[in-house]
Amino acid sequence: MRIPTLGTALAPLAAVVWLSLPGVARCSQIAPGSVEFTPTVSFSHSNMKRQGYGNVDTFTKLEITPTVGFCVSNHYEVTGGFMTRHESTNGVSQTALGATAGLTYNFSPQGGVIPYASFGFGALFYDGFSLNGTAVLAPMLTGGVRVLVGSTASVNTSLGYQHESNAQGEFGVSANRLIAGVGVSLFPWQAHQAPRGHEPARGR
Q1: Burial group, residue 60, by CB count within 10 angstroms (0-12, 13-18, 19+)
Q2: Going by C-beta distance under 8 Å and a sequence separation of 6 or more, which residues neighbour residue 92?
Q3: Which of 76, 112, 164, 189 has a beta carbon 3.0–4.6 Å from 35's, enabling a disulfide?
Q4: CATH of domain 6-18+28-190
Q5: How far apart are CA 163 and CA 161, in angstroms?
Q6: What is the pTM of this model?
Q7: In angstroms, rounded to a whole number, what is the distance separating the alpha carbons of residues 71 and 185?
Q8: Do 165 and 174 meet the contact criterion of CB atoms below 8 Å apart?
Q9: Do you find a cis peptide bond into 139, omega within 30 degrees of 0?
């Protein structure tokens, strides 16, 4: 579960101040050769009581998905990540491991704000790395906005849709999810840009 913090409110102001500094060499988060690291953790817990029955069913889910993206241009970014999902239903637990892959398109920046859209797919293995008990995540569609913070991070807000076949590893069962979130991306490696207002020297 991603929780908005004070940083979400201060991020636009920080980005405007940073972008307004003239003549200072800076890094571009989204540029050829840049690497993006996005750690994602989500948690949900719910109770369900059926009418006419005394028992209450409890459902708990924890997902951890660290994702790495590599920018091949100023717009296109190839992504991949690992996924761990732990689920508990009425005290009976199961854990699945899997992976995701996708492609993100980053639109042209508007000041310190970059809209983006992504398409991806993935798989979760509930019964070892075999086709038995495997959940397929496709498509995974996401649209959002990233607000650049300094030269090595961004605050991201997103809304996504995810279809899961063989949900929870059960053959023939499907699930559809709408996912809204706020998160943070880190850019440990970026492509450097020349200072504003200074063109690189060209040979005659």
Answers
A1: middle
A2: none
A3: 189
A4: 2.40.160.20
A5: 7
A6: 0.74
A7: 14
A8: yes
A9: yes
